[in-house]
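Collaboration report, partner site 2.

Our partner group contributed sequences for two proteins of shared interest, and the home lab folded both. The records are reproduced in the order in which they were received, starting with the first partner submission.
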Amino acid sequence: MTSLSRWAIALAACALSTPALAATVLVTPTSLNFGTGYTGATSPAQTVSITNTGAAPITPSYAGGAPTSGNFLASQNCAGVTLAPWASCQFFYAFAPTTTGAVTDSSNFTIDGTPYSVALQGFAVPGIVVSPTSLGFGPAYLGETSAQQVVNITNVSYSSQTPSYAGGAPTSGNFTASQNCAGVTLTPGASCQFFYALAPTETGLLTDSSNFTIDGDLFSVALSGFGLDPILVSPLALDFGAVAVGTTSPTQVANITNLSSVPQTPSYAGGAPTSGSFTAAQNCAGVTLAPGGSCQFFYAFAPTANGLVTDSSNFTVNGTPYMISLGGTGIGGVIAPVPLPASALLLFGAVALVAGLRRRA
């Protein structure tokens, strides 16, 4: 064997005994905290670097990596990229929560068959703020509608949103609701509006709520107001004084007045006095009363006997009961003689006989 052959064999043996330089991949960081995020919005991306720490170029193969909860997004620019020594490519993650509260997930993947994991976390709050959440309308008359009050639907997140809405109609029938939000894209900080008004159908304290969802999150606006009867009956007592029996007094009037700001066509029932000593008539049936307008109930006293007479006119206006008190005194009637008992007649006869005897004496 020549010296040259021995040298070649020695080089071959050296090559076999020398380990190859291993390609090394560094994944950093391995956890990402997105802090507070907003439902319906996507946070700015955070980056995980895939770095070739070896001495030779590599073209890694990748598998997996997608978060599973649906609250985080992932993308990358690494596929098919050859990394020179100490060069990097990137995995990109963003927080796009679909539910509120603390959210955790992980991105699990392999690089050239070696498993890696990136922990992901954030805290989600609604990206939409509803304000105010209660409205007080004060008093309004039945049949009219108050001035509208506004609830703002505001996008407080860092990206544009086109929310979806469901529900919202008050249930009592005493409040109305409308909105200009459907299908509207809200840029960051922008608002659309829900409009409410009091339209009372009953008197007294009225409460209700407008319950709705925005992108599945439940919201509620409390509503309150006071319903007033729009009809004023005045006066509620009529005194006819002394009236001769067999005659009829001058007419006195009770006004039925519309206090509201809208026309009213009230319905009436009842009203006739029951004693027979008072008469009643009216010009209200079927009449539409303009705001501030009135119609009239007419009453008169027609006594049939001497003495104080009282009565009342009981009726309803739009189902609300009213009572007008009526009073007067009958005078000047013939007083019928009262028959005396037989014992009294005998007594008066004896008295007359004694008186006659005394005159003769």
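Second partner submission, folded after the first:
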Amino acid sequence: MPVPPRVWLDENYDRIIRDNKEFQEKMNYIINNPVKTNLVEAAKDYKWLYIFD
């Protein structure tokens, strides 16, 4: 039986957020990903982004 191709990489490392500035950078990255990939025009329109509820 053929093995299906892998979708995810083996990345098992944590990132420590050391201050509020770095936290905001990571949140902005997460919030803007759907916009950068053209899934939506505005982050607030992304159905699975809960912070705008």
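Feedback sent to the partner group on the second submission included the following. Residues 20-52 form one domain. The first helix runs from residue 20 to 36.
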